[in-house]
Amino acid sequence: MDLALFDLDETLICEDSTSLWLRWLASQGYAPTALIEQEQALMAQYYQGALSIEDYMSTTLTPLTGMGTLTVSGWVRRFIHRDIMPRVYPAARERIAWHQTRGDTVMVVSASGEHLVVPIAQQLGAHGALAIGVEIVDDRYSGRTYGTMTYQQGKVTRINDWLTVQKDTRFKQTWAYSDSMNDLPLLEHADHPHVINPDEPLHQLAQQRGWQVCHWSR
């Protein structure tokens, strides 16, 4: 049995889940439209490799602060149905199914919050998800995060932490799929790295290292 690790945003789906989520919240009147502009400015830093993930999460969790978990989970279900599932790459579905037929364990590993990533992973048929921890106190969102961030090297740290508790499971090889240079540690960690719709720097790096390059479209 192998382990298949999939990034979520712009790998399994054609956009960024948190950006879509904030747009959904604003469209429903649950968040100010100004928050969308703030998030886009932070995403520009992400694409430059200069994002503070702490600042990003603090900003994007603002609409949930003080909200009950049941309320938010209802919002998330509606959001996933409307805005996520139609954006899943058909080739991503096929690749997940391919791993499942092999008997592999499929995990989604994302730098988005677990309140979004875990239910999306469930809808995609993954065995589990590793995402940024979002703190809940007395069944309400605090607006804070916890634990090691699943961002850049933090993804590999969280994967290794997860592997240490899989006492009855030993994986022969690891497969990884990502679109982003920020996931270079994840790709380097894998026996079979795959880059999805890479930008030019990542495409060149993949060619130099002999990594598989995939072009997925809707």
If you had to describe this structure to a student in words, what would you say it looks like?
The structure is a single chain. The protein has 218 residues and is α/β, with parallel strands linked by helices. It has a single domain (3-214), classed as 3-Layer(aba) Sandwich (Rossmann fold). The chain has helices at 17-27, 34-47, 53-60, 69-84, 90-102, 114-124, 153-164, 184-189, 200-209, and strands at residues 3-6, 105-113, 128-137, 140-146, 174-178, 192-196, 212-214. It has a seven-stranded mixed beta sheet. The protein starts with a strand and ends with a strand.
| Fraction of residues in H or I helices | 40-55%
Query: How many strands, what sense, and barrel or not for the largest sheet?
Result: 7 strands, mixed
From the N-terminal CA to the C-terminal CA, the straight-line distance is: 30 Å
CATH architecture: 3-Layer(aba) Sandwich
CATH class: Alpha Beta
Shape: globular
Strand order of the largest sheet: 4-3-2-1-5-6-7
Computed Rg: 17 Å
Low-pLDDT windows of residues: none
Give, in order, the helices and strands: EHHHHHEHEEHEHEHE
- Write out the CATH superfamily name: HAD superfamily/HAD-like
Q: Which structural class fits the helix and strand makeup?
A: alpha/beta
Q: What distinguishing features does this structure have?
A:
alpha/beta, 218 residues, 7 strands, Rossmann fold, globular, seven-stranded mixed β-sheet, 9 helices
Question: What can be said about this structure in brief?
Answer:
The protein has nine helices and seven strands. It has 218 residues and is of the alpha/beta class.
